[in-house]
């Protein structure tokens, strides 16, 4: 990556490597960074790191920045110094984010922290309080000039097997773990992305994704650098406030490639008004990747339908599949062909088979995530470890140069996850924990093993139940649900629980809340043959998400069992009530307890 940036400096030093859009009143103010200036700042960071480091220089460097150009220069400065970088969210508020970064600090045995000058004092105090006396804290930034001469920099000696950075997983089903991405992994995946997306030299990419998440970092920040292009960025908060800003960015900068989880496209459909989209030209967009959570066919169709009048091509909206353990991309669709959808028999899917849908039975529509790129994909029975044929759902296993080296300081988990062997002896496989099937070379991702609901021998996917609930009434927030199961140890029976956010206008009428909860139970009994599902209705913002927008169902299950959810109304099966803390076992006055089936 360092060589790629330096090549860009030689070819076009004055070209914008990055453009960052700052909120400025109702508008956005651009800040540009040329290739020459990016290189100069990265060399300064590298020189300061070498001068100030204490102890073992192999210890990683933790980057704590808001999502601005200062993060990019610090990240590349670690590459220039031959140090392992750790992108992480700035812990600028107490609670979950601080706990996450504190966990990274302990797990990675960090040797240095880079941040902006205004955060240095607070972060130094945090390090001292954490007992990290030997961790140096350095401030960097455009305004931070301590006189370091960039010409003091000398290229580091880096091997392909050296760890370039640690990508801490988003933690959708477990505690975050540091994925070791080597320089060879990164180069291989950048080439896979370039080949799959047919990325042209000098591409302009634009995104609002977090820079410390793999899709935002590797796909939207480093891929443009890899091909001498320009990356245009804005903060996730700017996008959430006004989703139309993303589309305006595409128009203003003639963006050719972008990416978002499914919910980003949904936000644009719901919240970008006709007035806001009037005059927008989206015809420059060649690739709009949809990944990081199950891709919904209706979202793709709605987004294309809504913005086709603005020049958006249907072929540009591309489902893909990737994960940090494979650096990023595993599979993607051809940007010059429409994506594939597959209508399958719902009952057969519950038995792990993809069979064509029948008119007389319920069906599910699956979206192809395209063909694997530079990675061998195996579908494996997670219990017997046997390879499965086309059309059978099993665990997705991967082999190839993009598969990361393992988890930092976790040798047993690395062996279990990255060194798996199939029943017929195919070794060196990565177990993704994801479920899916291959059909005619196309990969269909169906869910996560840890989140699967097993009911009376049927395998149900939580996202299907969540979607059905949210489509059943206007009061339910789209993307604001979590479905999981809890087990009654006495009977060893798994009970399904639905936690669903309501829109703000639907949260005050007690009788209406009772009707909504009852309607969810009736719907799931009728559509999924799930009697007496426990229903918990909550306010907007209660459902926890990862940085990539995945629902944290495992965390929501733990919060529910700990009595940690702020409940508006609930209807719980008696066996589920018995699993809750004694102080919360009695339902609230507005709640009803459903009878046993």
SSE arrangement:
Layout: H1 2-11, E1 16-24, E2 27-34, H2 35-52, E3 61-65, H3 69-81, E4 85-89, H4 96-108, E5 112-115, H5 117-129, E6 136-139, E7 163-168, E8 178-182, H6 183-197, E9 204-207, H7 214-226, E10 230-233, H8 236-241, H9 244-253, E11 257-260, H10 262-271, H11 274-277, E12 287-290, H12 297-307, E13 317-322, E14 329-332, E15 341-345, H13 346-350, E16 363-367, E17 371-372, E18 376-380, E19 394-399, H14 411-418, E20 430-439, E21 442-448, E22 453-455, E23 458-460, H15 462-470, E24 476-488, E25 493-502, H16 510-528, E26 534-538, H17 553-561, E27 567-572, H18 574-577, E28 592-593
Parallel strand pairs: 1-10, 3-4, 3-5, 5-6, 9-10, 11-12, 12-13, 25-26, 27-28
Antiparallel strand pairs: 1-2, 7-8, 13-14, 14-17, 15-16, 18-19, 19-20, 20-21, 22-23, 24-25, 26-27
Helix pairs in contact: 2-3, 6-7, 10-12
Which terms would index this structure?
ligase activity; alpha/beta; 5-stranded mixed sheet; AMP-bd_C_sf; FAAL/FAAC; 597 residues; disordered C terminus; lipid metabolism; Luciferase, domain 3; GMP Synthetase, Chain A, domain 3; Fatty acyl-AMP ligase; 32% helix
Description:
This protein has 597 residues and is α/β, with parallel strands linked by helices. Among the domains are: 338-451, Luciferase, Domain 3 (Luciferase, domain 3), CATH 2.30.38; 453-593, ANL, C-terminal domain (GMP Synthetase, Chain A, domain 3), CATH 3.30.300.30. It contains 18 helices and 28 strands. The strands form eight sheets. It has a five-stranded mixed sheet with strand order 11-12-13-14-17. A five-stranded mixed sheet has the order 24-25-26-27-28, sandwiched between helices. Helix 2 packs across helix 3 and helix 10 crosses helix 12. It is globular. GO terms for molecular function: adenylyltransferase activity; ligase activity.
